[in-house]
Design goal:
The chain has helices at about 35-45, 80-90, 95-100, 125-130, 165-180, 220-230, 235-240, 260-265, 270-280, 290-305, 380-400, and strands at about 10, 25, 30-35, 55-65, 70-75, 115, 135-140, 185-195, 200-210, 240-250, 255-260, 285, 310, 315-320, 345, 355-360, 365. By secondary structure, it is an alpha+beta fold. It has one domain (about 5-80, about 165-325, about 350-400): D-amino Acid Aminotransferase, Chain A, domain 1, CATH 3.30.470.160. α2 (about 80-90) packs antiparallel against α3 and α10 (about 290-305) runs antiparallel to α11 (about 380-400). Keywords: ATP-binding, Kinase, Nucleotide-binding, Transferase.
Length: about 400
C-alpha cells in the first residue's frame, strides 16, 4: 500500500458559493459529499447537457480524523481504480477527461488502502499552488461565526490571504460531521471535474438559477424559508441571483470577492451593476468576454428548453473566465465610456477569450425516471429558462453600452 498514489484532501480555495465544503482531490478533480439524488442525475445525464456540467468521475470513501490536538481533517480511501486513473490523469494532463470518462468507477468501503489526511498548516501552500503570483483576496464577506480556521495554537490566519468563503464552509462542514458521526464512519463523496483548473486567475460567478429554490422533499419550514428568500431577492423578479463571486483585479493583484449574503440584498439594478463588476478587471470592462459568454448561455438555454420533466431546483450556474488577458486584447477608449459605479473603461478584443459556463449542484434536481423522484413534471423548467433569458438580456445590454 505504501507504493500507491497518495491523495491529499484539501479545501478547494476557489469555492465562491454554496454551503457544503468542496474538497480538492487532485489538480483536475474536486469532491463533495454524495447525495443520492445528485448521483442519480450524473448517472443518467442527457448527452446534450454534458458539455455544460462537470465531468462525473466516480465515488470515493472518506472518513473524519481528529489528531491529539483536536484538529479535524478528512481522510480519503481511494479505490484501486481511482488510484490507477489518477496516475493516468497526472501523466497526460488535459487528455485526462477522456481517460476519466472511460474508467468504470465503484465506491470503495475497504479500509486496507492507504489513508491520507490534509493538515490545516498546509493551507498557505495550497493557495500558492492553486494560483500563480502573489495574490490576496480582498473581501466583503460577512460571517455568522466568530472566526475562521484556527491552527493548533488557536491562531487565526489573516482573512485576506485565501478565499475565505470556501474555508468558512469547510470548517462548518467538519464541525457538523464531527458532532454527528464517529471517526470510523465512512462517507461517500462524489468525484467531479475541477472546472477552473485550466485558469491561471479564475474569475468565477456563482448564480442561483430559477424562481423556485426548494426541492420536492423540503419540509414546510424549509419551503417557507426558501420562498421568502426568493421573494426578497432577484430570484423572483429576474429568476436568478448572485450566490458568490471572485474577480481578479489586475491593478492590485488581488481578487475581489462577494458572497451569497451580498447577492441576496441586491435589487435588479444592483444585480446588473454587479454583473458589470464581474467583467471589470480594475482597469477596464472586459467586453471581449461578452460575446463568448452570451453565445454559450444561448447554447445552454437551447438545451434546457428541450429537457422535458427536469426541474433544477437550487442548482447553480457558474460563469468562468481567466483574469489574465493578452495585452493585444485591450484597447481603452475615451473617458465618456466609463460605466457607472466602476472605474472601468471599455476594452474590445479581436481574440476570442477562454470562457466557460457550467451547471452545478443537483442535490434537488428531479426528472422522470429519477431513482429519487418525488413529483413528475411535464415540459421544461420555465423558472430556470426565465432566469437564463433575463441573464442573457442583461449581458446584451452591457454589450450595447446600456
Amino acid at each position: 500500500s505504501e507504493s500507491r498514489t497518495t491523495v491529499l484532501l484539501e479545501p478547494f480555495v476557489h469555492q465562491v458559493g454554496g454551503h457544503m465544503s468542496m474538497m480538492k482531490y487532485d489538480e483536475h478533480t474536486v469532491c463533495k459529499p454524495l447525495v443520492s439524488q445528485e448521483l442519480s442525475f450524473y448517472e443518467s445525464l442527457p448527452l446534450a447537457m454534458r458539455q455544460f456540467t462537470p465531468q462525473y468521475k466516480g465515488v470515493v470513501s472518506v472518513h473524519l480524523k481528529k489528531d491529539s490536538l483536536g484538529n479535524l481533517s478528512l481522510m480519503a480511501s481511494p479505490s484501486l481504480q481511482t488510484e490507477s486513473c489518477t496516475r493516468l490523469d497526472n501523466a497526460i494532463g488535459d487528455s485526462s477527461v477522456t481517460i476519466w470518462h472511460k474508467c468504470k468507477w465503484a465506491a470503495s468501503t475497504s479500509s486496507e488502502h492507504t489513508l491520507v489526511k490534509w493538515s490545516h498548516t498546509q493551507l498557505t501552500k495550497t493557495f500558492k499552488d492553486s494560483c500563480p503570483g502573489k495574490m490576496l483576496l480582498r473581501t466583503d464577506l460577512q460571517y455568522h461565526t466568530d472566526s475562521l480556521l484556527e491552527d493548533a495554537n488557536r491562531n487565526q490566519p489573516e482573512r485576506n490571504s485565501y478565499n475565505p468563503w470556501g474555508l468558512h464552509c469547510h470548517r462548518q462542514h467538519l464541525n457538523r460531521m464531527s458532532s454527528k458521526h464517529n471517526e470510523n464512519k465512512l462517507h461517500q463523496f462524489l468525484l467531479l471535474e475541477n472546472v477552473v483548473s485550466k485558469y491561471n486567475y479564475p474569475c468565477i460567478l456563482d448564480l442561483k438559477m430559477g424562481t423556485r429554490q426548494h426541492g420536492d422533499d423540503a419540509s414546510e419550514e424549509k419551503k417557507a424559508r426558501h420562498i421568502k428568500k426568493c421573494e426578497q431577492s432577484t430570484s423572483a423578479s429576474l429568476g436568478v441571483r448572485i450566490c458568490g463571486m471572485q474577480v481578479y483585479q489586475v491593478d492590485t493583484g488581488h481578487f475581489l470577492c462577494k458572497d451569497k449574503y451580498y447577492g441576496r440584498k441586491l435589487s435588479a439594478e444592483g444585480f446588473r451593476q454587479t454583473l458589470r463588476q464581474f467583467l471589470c478587471n480594475g482597469n477596464h470592462l472586459r467586453t471581449d468576454l461578452l460575446e463568448p459568454i452570451i453565445l454559450r448561455l444561448k447554447a445552454l438555454l437551447s438545451v434546457i428548453r428541450k429537457q422535458s420533466s427536469y426541474r433544477f431546483y437550487s442548482s447553480s450556474l457558474l460563469i468562468i473566465y481567466d483574469g489574465q488577458e493578452h495585452k493585444e486584447n485591450t484597447v481603452p477608449l475615451d473617458n465618456h465610456l466609463h460605466f457607472q459605479k466602476t472605474n472601468c473603461t471599455v476594452s474590445h478584443g479581436s481574440h476570442p477569450s477562454r470562457v466557460d459556463v457550467r451547471m452545478i449542484d443537483f442535490a434537488h434536481t428531479t426528472f422522470k425516471g429519477s431513482k429519487c423522484n418525488h413529483t413528475t413534471y411535464d415540459g421544461p423548467d420555465h423558472g430556470y429558462i426565465f432566469g437564463m433569458e433575463n441573464l442573457i438580456k442583461i449581458l446584451q445590454n452591457i454589450s450595447e453600452g446600456k
